[in-house]
Each structure stands twice: as C-alpha cells, then as structure tokens.
Amino acid sequence: MNLNEDKWIDQILSSTEKKSEIPVSEELRQRLMRIPSEMKMRSSTIPMRAVFAVAAGIALLISLNVLALKNTSKKEVIEHAIYTEYFSYLEQL
C-alpha cells in the first residue's frame, strides 16, 4: 500500500514539470494595470448636505423623544394626583 502511495505522489509531482507559463497578451496586461486607477476614480464621498440632513433628522427625533417623555411624565403626575385624591378616604381606615 505504501508503494502505491509513493507512486501516486511521484505522478502528481511529475505532472507539474510538464506545465509551462501561458504568455499574457500586452492588452490584458495593460487592462490589469489600469484597474487601480479606475477604482480610485470611482470612489466618492458623501455630500456634506446629506450629512447635515441626517444629523438634523437625528436631532429632531431626539428632541421629539425628550418632549414626549416630559409630556407623559406630567400626565402620570396629574393622573397620580387624581387617584390619590379619589382614594384618600381609604387613608382613614
């Protein structure tokens, strides 16, 4: 069995000796060399107007959340006062 494995390994190693490089055409080489410069031209930045619009939207959402939080806490205090006044007779018991 070891002999078969050695033979198999030798066949694989000898198969690489028969391979040769394929010549690359000059046109393909130039196209490959142009890829980095084309990629740099395609990169873009986010416009500052869009950044400010997103920041303003986030600020608006935060302020609305704070406003809603303040209004709901006031209502809870008012409702709590109503219930306390209504059930005040139970304090005597």
Which strand-content bin applies to the residues? under 5%
Distance between the first and last residues' Cα: 98 Å
Class from secondary-structure proportions: mainly alpha
Note the overall shape.
elongated
According to DSSP, the number of beta strands is 0
Tally of helical runs: 3
As an assembly, this protein is single chain
Average residue pLDDT: 80
Low-pLDDT stretches are: none
Question: What summary fits the major beta sheet?
Answer: none
Query: What is the helix/strand order?
Result: HHH
Radius of gyration: 39 Å
* Fraction in helix: over 70%
In short:
The protein is mostly helical. It contains three helices and no strands.
How would you describe the overall organization of this protein?
By secondary structure, the protein is mostly helical. It has a domain at 46-93. Helices cover 77% and strands 0% of the residues. It contains 3 helices and no strands. It has helices at residues 2-17, 26-42, 48-86. It is elongated, with a radius of gyration of 39 Å. The N and C termini lie far apart (98 Å). The relative contact order is 0.04. The mean pLDDT is 80.
